[in-house]
Design goal:
Elements lengths: L1 H13 L23 E4 L4 E6 H7 L2 H6 L4 E8 H5 L5 H9 L4 E8 L5
Antiparallel strand pairs: 1-2, 2-3, 3-4
Length: 114
């Protein structure tokens, strides 16, 4: 039991051991913008719905895959957890504490969904 407590304490403290990386921008950010991003829940998974025009500016190759659509939903996470049909405590713990493969989920969002 003492080993489990020690391991848990190390994991918790390692998350607080350094300052977060801050990305500096060239322009001053006012906190006000005209771009809408939606957050959607799929139970265990969360996705971000982003207007495709903004994504295509950064990753133009995605237009070949998705074409003229309004938005794209993105999600990502542990491969085993994300693609599992049934969530178990073992799968959850492995996703949280063990370095595993990741996947990115990207789907088109039809007009009129939001």
């Amino acid at each position: 039991m003492e080993k489990v407590f020690t391991l848990l304490l190390i994991v918790i403290l390692s998350g607080c051991s350094s300052e977060p990386h801050i990305v500096k921008t060239d322009e001053e950010y006012s906190g006000k913008g005209n771009k809408k991003i939606y957050v959607v829940s799929h139970g265990w998974h969360t996705g971000f719905v982003v207007p495709s025009e903004h994504i295509y500016k950064e990753v133009p190759e995605l237009k070949d895959r998705f074409g003229d659509i309004r938005s794209i939903e993105f999600g990502w996470g542990d491969k085993g957890f994300y693609q599992s049909k049934e969530i178990t405590s073992g799968l959850t713990l492995r996703a949280i504490f063990w370095p595993t493969e990741s996947v990115v989920h990207a789907v088109s969002v039809p007009q009129g969904v939001y």
